[in-house]
Amino acid sequence: MMRKLSILIKKIFPSSTIGKIAVWILLLWVLIAIFSPFLANDKPIIAKSDQGWSMPIFSANKINNTESYQFKINPLIPYRYDNLDLQSYLVPPFTKGEKGIHLLGTDKLGRDVAAGMINGARVALIVATVAIFLSAIFGIFIGLIIGFYGDTGIRRNLLQQLTIILFGILLIYYIIHIYMEQFSLYNLIPFILLLLSGYFIDKALGNLPFKKYGFPIDLFVQRLFEINESVPNIFIILAFVAIVVHTNLFTIPLILAVLVWMTFARYARAEVLQIKNEDYILSAQASGMSNLRILIKHILPNALPPLLVVMAFSFSGVILLESTLSFLGIGLPLEEVSWGKILAESRKSSKSWWLAVFPGFAIFLVLYAFNILGDILSNYQRNQETI
Amino acid sequence: MFQYSIKRILLFIPTIFLVSCLTFLLSKLVPADQVAILLNVQGIDDSNDIWNEEYASLHKKMNLDLPYFYFSIQPNYTILTSNDEYGILEQQLIAKLSKQRYREPFITTLLNLFKECPSSIERKLLSSNTLLQISTKLSTMRNKLDDEIIKRIDTHIQKASLNKIKWHYPVFHLNGLQNQYHLWIKKILRGDFGISLIDTRPVTDKLWDSMQWSLVLVGLNIFFALLIAFPIGLYNGVHPNSTFDNISNGILFAFFAIPKFWLATLFIIFFTTSEFGAWTNIFPSVGRWYTDGSQSFVSMIIEKWENLILPVLMLVIPDTAYLARLIRSSVQEEYSKEYIKTAKSKGLSKKELTINHILPNSLIPTISLLVGSLPSAIASTLVIEVIFNIPGIGRLMFESIESSDWAMLYPIVLIISILAVIIFLIGDFLIAFLNPKIKFK
Prior knowledge:
The complex is a heterodimer.
Chain A: H1 2-12, H2 17-34, H3 36-39, E1 46-49, E2 52-54, E3 71-73, E4 95-96, E5 101-102, H4 113-149, E6 155-157, H5 158-180, H6 185-206, E7 212-214, H7 217-230, H8 233-241, H9 251-276, H10 279-286, H11 291-328, H12 339-348, H13 354-386
Antiparallel strand pairs in A: 1-2, 1-3, 4-5, 6-7
Helix pairs in contact in A: 2-4, 2-13, 4-9, 4-11, 4-13, 5-6, 8-9, 9-11, 11-12, 11-13, 12-13
Chain B: H1 2-29, H2 34-41, H3 51-61, E1 71-75, H4 88-99, H5 104-115, H6 119-126, H7 131-140, H8 147-162, E2 170-174, H9 180-189, H10 203-238, H11 243-257, H12 260-271, H13 297-303, H14 306-335, H15 338-345, H16 350-372, H17 374-388, H18 393-402, H19 406-434
Antiparallel strand pairs in B: 1-2
Helix pairs in contact in B: 1-19, 4-5, 5-8, 7-8, 10-11, 10-14, 10-17, 10-18, 11-14, 12-14, 12-17, 14-16, 16-19, 17-18, 18-19
C-alpha cells in the first residue's frame, strides 16, 4: 500500500504547477506548526551565560534577565503568542515593541500577531489532524462493515439478535464507565468477561435450528447519515460545544470527529459496495477465504486510495469549522490563540486591518491548498477510471 | 418510484425520532441548573427565604423529578428518591453521594444525623458535594454545634469511606409514559416550545421573528447567486477551456475557498469607512436592526435596505462561485450527449442549441440540488448574521449559546434539524421526479 501511495504521489504532483504550489503551502504550514515554539518565543533558543551553555527555550520558568547572557540566539520572533506587550497595543506592522519589532502588529492586549499566527498554525494542525485521524479510523471501519455486510450479511436467529442487543447495552454501559471514570478493574474486568461470553453465547446459539434474519446495521447507520447529510454541521457542532464546559485542544477535534467520521463512513461504504462485486472478490469468496481476510487483504487496500480525496476535502472542512468556531468565540479555551480568534479581535477594533488580513489569509491559503489537492486527486482518479 | 417514495417516507419517521432523542439528550447534558436560572430571571436568588420552596415547586412543574426516558438503564448504586420523602437539597445530596458509590443505609443515617443540627447549618451541610467537604465544613462550625454530634458524623463518615460499592452492574427500569421525553415531545407537538430563559418570551415567537430574517437573506442570496452564476456557468460549459473559462474558473475556485467571515470582515474594515482613501466608503457600516417592536418587519427592511447590501453580497460571492462551477459541469455533461450531436447535424445554431436544449436540461439538476442544499444555505448565513448584527436564526442560536439560554437553543436545534431533514427529502424526491432515469433500490 505504501508503494502504491508513493507512486500515486509521484504520478500526480509534478504534473501541475498549481498542485505543486498547494503542496508547498501545506508543507510550509506543517513545518511552521511543528517548529512553532522555536519560531516565536520570548526565551532564547541557545544562550551562553556564566554557568555555561544552556537552552532556555526548554525551561518552564520565566526568564527575566536576558541581559545576563553573554551570547544568545533568539527565535525569529522574540514574543510568545501569549506575551502581553503592554506598552504597544494595537500597533500596526513593523512597529518596534518591548523586545523587538512586531512584524505583523499587535492586538488590543499587546499580543504579537505574528507569534499568534504561528501558534494558530499549530492549533489548526493539531485540531485538523486529530479530528481527521479519529474520524478516518472510525469512519472507515464502520463504512467497511456496513458496506460489506449490508442489511443481510450478518444473519442471526432471533435469540442471537436478542443477545446481541442485550450484550451491546451492557458493553456500552461499561464503556461509558471506563471512559468517564478513573481506570479501575471493577469496570474493565466485567467488560472483558462480557465481550468474551457474548462472543461464545452468540456462537452457541447460532447452532440452534432456528430461522435466521439479517441484522439491519446498514439501515440504522443510514439514518445517522441522513441526519448528517441534511442538518448543517455548524448547528450540530454548536449544540455539542455548548454542553462542554472545559474545552481544550483535544476536546474540540473530538467533537468535530463526532460528525466527520460519517463522511468517511459514507464514502468507504460506497467504495466497498463497488469493490464487493468485482470478480476477484467473488473468486476469493469461492476459494473459501474468510470474510475478515477478504475485508482486510482485498477490500481495504482498494478502498483506501479513493478516500484520499475525502481526506483532503475534510481537512479543509475541519479547518474551516474550527476557525468559524474560534471566530465566533466558542470552543477553544481563552488562553489559546488561533487564526479565527485573531480575526475575531479585528471586529472589536475595526481600524486595525492587520488583525483581519493576515490570519484570514492564512486560513484561506490552507483551505485553498487542500481544495486544489482534493480537486487534483479526484480528477486523477476519474481519469484513471476512464483509462 | 412509488415504492421508493413509500420506503423513504416510512424511514423518515425513525430519523425524526432519532433527531428528537439526540436533541433531548443534548439538552439534558447541559451543565447548568435550569430551575436556578429561571428563578434568577424572576428575581429570586438563593439567599432568599422562599428559594427552597420555589425551587421545589418549579422543579416539579418542569417535570425535572421524572425519569428521562421510557426506560432507564442505571447503575445499581443509583438511589431513586421521590419528592414526598425528601426535600430538594436532600435529593441532590443523595444523587451526588450515590454517584460516589456510598451505600444507601449510610446516606440515610447521615441525613438523619444532619436533621439533628439546626436548620441553617443543616442546609449548609446539605449543599456540599463530597464527604470531605462535609467534614471540613463541620470543622469550621465547631463553636456553633455540639461536640457530640460532630463526633458522631465524623466517625460515620470515616466508616463509610471504607465500605463503598465496588462491583456494579446496570439495572433496567421501565418508566411508562410519565417521563420527561414523552411530556417534552407531547408539548412540542402541541406547538408549545416553552419560554426563553432570558426575556421569558415564548420560544415560538422569537423563532418566527428570526426565521423571517434568515429567509429573506437566503432568498436574496439564492436569487442573485443564480442570476450571476447561470450566464457564467453556461458560457463556460459551452466554451470549455476558452480563455474566459480558464480565468474565471481560477477566480471562482479562489472565491469558493475564501471563508465567508474573512471576506465580510475585510469588506467591513476597508469599504465602510474613508479611513483608507477617499473612495473606500462605499457601503454603509454595520446596521442596527433591533427596534422597539412597533415597526413592522417589511417596513424596517424597506427603510434600511442599504444595510442588507453587504451581507447579501458576502453570501452571494462564495455561492456564485460554487453554483457557477456546478452549472458548468452539468452543462458540459449535457453538451457531450448524443442528442446534441443530432441537433447539431440538423443544423441548429449554437445559440439555439444552448437556449432550447442545454439550458432547460441543465437547469433541472441545478434547481433540485439547490432545494436540497437549502438547510446549508441557512447555516451559511449564521456567521454573516453574527457579523452584521442581523437578528436571524443563526444569530439567535449564537446568542442563546453565549447567554446560556438552553431553553431557547435546543428547540432551535430540533426545529432546524427536522426542517433540514424534510427539505432534504423533498430535494431527493425532486431529483427522482425530474430525472426518472435514476434508479432507486
